[in-house]
Amino acid sequence: xxxxxxxxxxxxxxxxxxxxxxxxxxxxxxxxxxxxxxxxxxxxxxxxxxxxxxxxxxxxxxxxxxxxxxxxxxxxxxxxxxxxxxxxxxxxxxxxxxxxxxxxxxxxxxxxxxxxxxxxxxxxxxxxxxxxxxxxxxxxxxxxxxxxxxxxxxxxxxxxxxxxxxxxxxxxxxxxxxxxxxxxxxxxxxxxxxxxxxxxxxxxxxxxxxxxxxxxxxxxxxxxxxxxxxxxxxxxxxxxxxxxxxxxxxxxxxxxxxxxxxxxxxxxxxxxxxxxxxxxxxxxxxxxxxxxxxxxxxxxxxxxxxxxxxxxxxxxxxxxxxxxxxxxxxxxxxxxxxxxxxxxxxxxxxxxxxxxxxxxxxxxxxxxxxxxxxxxxxxxxxxxxxxxxxxxxxxxxxxxxxxxxxxxxxxxxxxxxxxxxxxxxxxxxxxxxxxxxxxxxxxxxxxxxxxxxxxxxxxxxxxxxxxxxxxx
Length: 472
Known about the structure:
Blueprint: H1 5-20, H2 25-44, H3 50-63, H4 73-79, H5 83-99, H6 106-130, E1 133-134, E2 137-138, H7 141-165, H8 174-189, H9 199-223, H10 228-256, H11 264-289, E3 318-328, H12 333-342, E4 352-356, H13 357-360, E5 370-377, E6 386-400, E7 403-410, E8 416-427, E9 430-441, H14 444-448, H15 450-469
Antiparallel strand pairs: 1-2, 3-9, 4-5, 5-6, 6-7, 7-8, 8-9
Helix pairs in contact: 1-2, 1-3, 2-3, 2-7, 2-11, 3-5, 4-6, 5-6, 6-7, 6-8, 7-8, 7-11, 8-9, 9-10, 10-11
């Protein structure tokens, strides 16, 4: 596991910036988001590649110097370095979302939001430092956007999702905390006066504040499951979080009515600092007591009730029949190949991982056995492979002298419809493998990218044949 140094070094740099540099509070809040909040969010998910954590620490130190430079092209160019971190982070978030076996739960959407916000923050940082504006908003709103998106669409949803996954926080309010902020943002973008919120925006902010309060109330008891001081740190942070969010509708509504009670400086001091403290505390607790494994937690599981979903050969979108010579059969090699096939030791671990009752019981497969599997698809270099979980049911398991066969059908818990089989025959002194497959993909990503799916499928078949053929 990476050292906390990757969080401590940027945080220490922020402290020096706060003490020694002559920067305003808005720039300081953006630096905090980049040097403290973002590295902490990376720490929460243990599957984030180590190189990305290191890049965030190093490039973050460089990119934040844009906040010290005069507004202009030079500062914008330095700020653009942050995209070298946030774009790969977005790619990782895409892989994490696709690997989630239960995308209908709020966790998947909260974690997806956490990968989008930093990219928007990067764009805001570039335009605010090069032009002094972002999407038509002048300063200090342009710089505040850097802070908001790193927290509201970064650390906040990820930390709360991680705590909820481990039972330390409420789950239901996550829906509102993920989907209401974009509504508030959209209403901000449609202001007739960019510096004056509308009453509708104030109403949306009130819903957000009530959602934060509901999360705090609902999480009070679950946070009690944390040990010792962490329990009260979590509860205190939860109260501070809801109190900070409660200031948002007050600010928006009073400005809309023309009698503002809080100005931007007061909001930064009261709302911004409180929210930063609360979310940093919750993020640290999530990293310590509820770390995510955003991708590798998707492991092969067996759906015991999903019905088979075979498809006729002539109706399958992709059909394969490959005949290969696997080498000599003498010296007991055919028997070893047959043992491997009937134990489904076919695909290498880099292509597919699987689990089964016959594997756990160390016996050959039988008709009716089910296999839980995860297809591994590497979409981006340097990133973990996407995991597509599936369940199949064995419909062919046969062995006799000089012959072995194994096959299965897809089920409703699969990314496609069809069947797969492999037969081994001893023909003279050689072992001949016949691989047959019929498949119509049903997963939305596979349907959208059929050529890529087909390429991965053919590569998987070739890798499986090579692995089986390597049996001594």
